[in-house]
Amino acid sequence: MRDVAIIGIGQTPVEEHWGKSLRHLGHDAIMAAMRDAGIETADALYVGNMLSGELGGQQHVGALLADFVGLRGIEAMKIEAACASGAAALRVGLMAVASGMHDVVLVCGVEKMTDAVGDEVTSGLASAADQEYEVSQGISFVGLNALLMRRYMYQFDIKKEYFAGFAVNAHRNGANNPYAMFRSPITEATYLKAGMIADPVNLMDSSPVCDGAACVVLAPAELYRSKVKARILASAVAIDSLAIHDRRDPLALDAVTVSSQKAYAQARMTPADIHLFEAHDAFSIMAALSLEGAGFAPRGAGVYMASEGEIGIHGRLPISTMGGLKSRGHPVGATGIYQVIEVVEQLTGAAGANQVSGATVGMAQNIGGSGATVITHILGAA
Amino acid sequence: MSIPRNWRTRQQRYSLKAEVCNACGNTIFPPRDVCPHCAEQKQSWTNLSGRGEIYSFTTMYSAPAGFEEYAPYTMALVKLAEGPMITAQLTDVDTEDVKIGMPVEMVTRKLSQDGDEGQILYGYKFRPMLRQVA
Amino acid sequence: MLKPDRDVGIVGYGAYVPRYRLPASEVARVWTDGSGGLPIKEKAVAGLDEDTLSMSVEAARNALERARIDPSEIRAVWVGSESHPYAVKPTSTIVAEAIGAAPSVQAADLEFACKAGSEAIVMGMGIVGSGMGRYVLAIGMDTAQARPGDALEYTAASGGAAFLIGPAAESAAVYEASLSHVTDTPDFWRRAYAHYPSHGHRFTGEPAYFEHVTTAGRRLMAELGTVPADYNYVVLHQPNTKFPQRAAQILGFTTEQLKTGLLVPVIGNTYAGSSLIGLTAILDIAKPGDRIFMVSFGSGAGSDAFSIRVTDRITEIQNRAPQTQDYIARRKVIDYATYVRYRHKLQMK
């Protein structure tokens, strides 16, 4: 297997892009990444996307985007793994380059959520859960996270305000990220008075509905030595049941644990070697459970990391360094690529005011559903 | 709303028709082809008591499509007496009275309907125990 | 008089009353400024996720809990109601599937205004009494609708009961005989596609309710050679409190015989379930050897009268399932606005 590097990155701001279609968003990110890498073409394009069919009536977005950016004739396809679609596409690109089947591969995560309104988006997101035995009962994706959060608070005697630090940290970091959707800091008071969506999950526990596209260019490190921005040291996936009710223990995200352990083994590292962690903080409870599952906190104690000293830019383990899903935004199928790009920015010293000093190893973890697909990537500096 | 899918799953929705694994003895709901506990493929049908207790719950203020008319309503993870956990709505209860650990029993209720002219979907929900019976 | 070849009876029974109650004073507050008398105290209102099907399933399950029979031995499921969820598609097939009676079963929905439930019982007596089948499930259940502001809005309620009819030897109560009295009397109706029923106001009294209830009752007692004093309990169709009180008096029953089964003051008129749920309330406390006289009434119009004798088995089954009074005690009072929402009287589009 060949070592694979990221040689170019491109992203659109995450926002409500009323004036842009999915194809335009994809175009902007892909062209930016190709310019960054200094390439004119590629062997393949893998598109991470979850909801194009559900919300836009548009599947087949691999060919759609490849054609739209002027790459007729190349290989292109869409990869879907719910909210982990972005990281899943990255892994497919990685396998293609590592195996020697392709040299230069584009991986683009793209999501256009605002073409649909209200409950259509709610229903679309719920398609990540078990349609026959969860969704048909009236639960939403927010509702599933609320079930986990309530049980977590009950079982570990956690107060609601303990979670505030996750949203506060995300917004503090997002304020300095020009691509972030929310660019104003919040306080614990803002968090505590936010409107309830599904008790106890409020608006500040929850990532926003938004649009965005992000793209990376992959190539063999050996062949593109001068262009290497970061190296992919580990890539690992683990799955669990779609339905929370089918889990061994709903409060233990087993797939997070297994995926993280596999990644640490590949990179020959331990959690202590990770300098920053782009966690899948789609909901505050997911941030807490991810920290526990990935080995950064003991069971029931992930929430106690929600403080600046722990997860802030200068903390013990900076997370969501460019705003995370909460503040940068969570254009679902694109999120996995945004996370990886943010790790690349940290490893190349391009994170501006949010730079984690001396960062040479970063981890990105993208979660599909409420923990059914977990994809972990560990990146190292060039 | 898929007519064939709802038809296929009617016995699970109406009466919690479940399986027992012939190899490890665990009760399985919803039914599966491979036991999630021991990976064996031989199961027999069984009926569940419909009794259980609340493992967690949430009140939905923002309902998905098809459920708007019921909002706000309470969803729960219910740990069934026979072992499996199930995601279901609570009914005939006031939100402020719901507690983790509360004993509940299954009832068959209207889940959703496909507009004014389409099918009505019935299925399980859970409510506080009406009464302990002999 | 209808008397089967083989004696039949009630092998199991079950009631259902929904949780919500609308006080009659709430209807008066909105429509009459609170003036005028109230026909009952309060009525039972089905919740947002309830209908005749869901309520029938619960009553049927209670009947099965009491009977402890194999549901696959039920040969017919008949649901009498004027509020079937579908205009075309049987309520009864869903009930049969939900309780495990499908697929070797007759299934049909019956309609005879408030008499559809007792009609199902008589049909069940025929099937079991002839030996065609061992058990029949007969249900009378309604989520009765009334036009906002109409006199019926005070009383039109939700609820009903299910009866498993089977061989006398297995029964907790045996049917001695029944008798029906049916004429074309247009006292109350609902046309196809109409949301609310219409009625003949005072015409619903003498020529309709009283004529049919008292005639059926008197004739059955005459045929059997019984008198009111032979019965411990009487239960009549109860559209309001006064009608059954007066009909019982005309037939010669005392208020003492009437009171156990007179539920209308606290749950309202459950239409096809009305006399049936009065009977379940009596069976819940009846003793072996007790005799019960029941007369249903359905507009259009007709009455079925029944003479019932309670057997030794009653005490075994009374506590196997929730009793009628358990449901009556489970109550949450709602206001008129909530009632309007629960009964789908709000125009949403």
Describe the structure.
Chain A is α/β, with parallel strands linked by helices and 382 residues long. Chain A has two domains: 133 residues, Peroxisomal Thiolase, Chain A, domain 1 (3-Layer(aba) Sandwich); 217 residues, Thiolase/Chalcone synthase (Peroxisomal Thiolase, Chain A, domain 1). Chain A is built from 13 helices and eleven strands. In chain A, the strands form two sheets. Chain A has a nine-stranded mixed β-sheet with strand order 3-2-4-7-1-8-11-10-9, with helices on both faces. With 134 residues, chain B is mainly β. Chain B has one domain. Helices cover 9% and strands 41% of the residues of chain B. In chain B, a hairpin with a 5-residue loop joins strand 1 and strand 2. The longest helix of chain B is centred in the first third of the chain and has 6 residues. With 349 residues, chain C is α/β, with parallel strands linked by helices. Chain C folds into two domains: 185 residues, Peroxisomal Thiolase, Chain A, domain 1, CATH 3.40.47.10; 141 residues, Thiolase/Chalcone synthase (Peroxisomal Thiolase, Chain A, domain 1, 3-Layer(aba) Sandwich), CATH 3.40.47.10. Chain C contains twelve helices and 14 strands. In chain C, strand 9 and strand 10 form a beta hairpin. In chain C, helix 5 packs parallel to helix 6. At the A-B interface, helix 5, helix 6 and strand 5 of A face strand 4, strand 5 and strand 6 of B.
Spell out the blueprint of helices and strands.
The complex is a heterotrimer of chains A (382), B (134) and C (349).
Chain A: E1 4-11, H1 22-37, E2 44-48, H2 52-56, H3 61-68, E3 75-79, H4 85-99, E4 105-112, H5 119-126, H6 141-155, H7 164-174, H8 188-192, E5 196-198, E6 201-202, E7 211-220, E8 230-239, H9 254-267, E9 276-278, H10 284-293, H11 308-311, H12 324-327, H13 332-347, E10 361-368, E11 373-381
Parallel strand pairs in A: 2-3, 2-4, 9-10
Antiparallel strand pairs in A: 1-7, 1-8, 4-7, 5-6, 8-11, 10-11
Helix pairs in contact in A: 1-3, 4-13
Chain B: H1 3-8, H2 10-15, E1 17-21, E2 27-28, E3 43-47, E4 51-60, E5 73-80, E6 85-89, E7 103-113, E8 120-128
Antiparallel strand pairs in B: 1-2, 1-3, 4-5, 4-7, 5-6, 7-8
Chain C: E1 8-16, E2 20-23, H1 24-31, E3 42-45, H2 52-67, E4 74-80, H3 91-99, E5 106-110, H4 116-130, E6 135-143, E7 158-167, E8 173-185, E9 188-189, E10 198-199, H5 205-224, E11 233-236, H6 242-251, H7 255-259, H8 264-267, H9 274-283, E12 291-295, E13 300-310, H10 314-317, H11 324-329, E14 332-333, H12 336-342
